Amino acid sequence: MSFNFRKRKKARAEINIVNLIDIIFTINIFLLITTTFASTQANAIDVNLPATTQAKVLKVEEKKTLSVTIDKMEKIYLNNEKITVEKLRDIFAE
Questions:
Q1: What is the DSSP letter of 44?
Q2: 68 with 77: CB under 8 angstroms?
Q3: Tens of pLDDT along the chain (94 residues)?
């Protein structure tokens, strides 16, 4: 009875880089197209802006901010100062 003891060849680990090359190639094409498109889009539309001989200066009124707070005890505060409901109505009536 004879035994056949052959040495098995070890499988060599390989890294398949074909997929990596495909991805890099696709990214390169995408970047080339988008940068070309972006640079042509910046100069694509010519706009003639209107010119004025006299400019008006508009005064913007300063906005008044009011902070109204009602606590658990139903006390009313306007900008952290305790006030009554009647006084609050008068302030908003102005």
A1: S
A2: yes
A3: 566 667 777 777 777 888 899 999 999 999 888 886 655 665 667 778 888 777 777 888 887 788 889 999 889 998 889 999 899 888 888 7
HEC readout, the chain: CCCCCCCCCCCCCCCCCHHHHHHHHHHHHHHHHHHHHHHHHHCCCCCCCCCCCCCCCCCCCCCCCCCEEECCCCCEEECCEEECHHHHHHHHHC
Facing residues of 76 across strands? 70, 83
Spans of all domains in the chain? 14-44, 62-94
